[in-house]
Amino acid sequence: MSGDEEEPAPSSRIPVIGRLYITRDDLNEEFIRASGPGGQNVNKVSTAVQLRFNLWANQTLPQDVKSRAAKIAGSRLTQYGEIILQADRHRTRERNRDDALARLIDLLKRATEKPKPRKATKPTLGSKRRRLDAKKQRGQVKKLRGRSSGFED
């Protein structure tokens, strides 16, 4: 952050992991009608929540975390850089809101984990031998499919 930007109030901070956090300003909630449990209530009350997190506009997460989060989000990431999560497992708004936020935090936590670099390895001697043996055996099978040597009844 540069010196002229204000720190968000601690109450608007949502901790992700360690010192990383997101702010409530980055979130946008919309309540919609849910399918699933709820009986007649499901037709009358909008209990499902659609949580939108603007990933690209966020100022508190490092760029490498944002790019990994975009990869993890997959089809839940819009072309405008918003992660959309829909929660309708529960019958109440509050539980669905908490569920959506918990899923977003989990996604961001997974994005903070740096992938292990792949170390190039050579195939073992045993694996080379097994491969060659399998090739020879396959060649034998194909050879036996050929025409016979002329001794027919």
From TrEMBL:
> What SUPFAM superfamilies does the record point to?
Peptidyl-tRNA hydrolase domain-like
Query: Any idea where the Prokaryotic-type class I peptide chain release factors domain is?
Result: 33-49
Record-given protein name: Protein chain release factor B
Q: Which GO terms describe its molecular function?
A: peptidyl-tRNA hydrolase activity; ribosome binding; translation release factor activity
**UniProt biased composition (Basic residues):** 116-146
Q: Which GO terms describe its biological process?
A: rescue of stalled ribosome
Among the Pfam families in the record, one is RF-1
> What is the protein's species of origin?
Roseibium alexandrii (strain DSM 17067 / NCIMB 14079 / DFL-11) (Labrenzia alexandrii)
- The residues forming a coiled coil are none
Q: Where is this region: Disordered?
A: 109-153
Return the Gene3D superfamilies for the record: 3.30.160.20
Q: Where are the transmembrane segments?
A: none
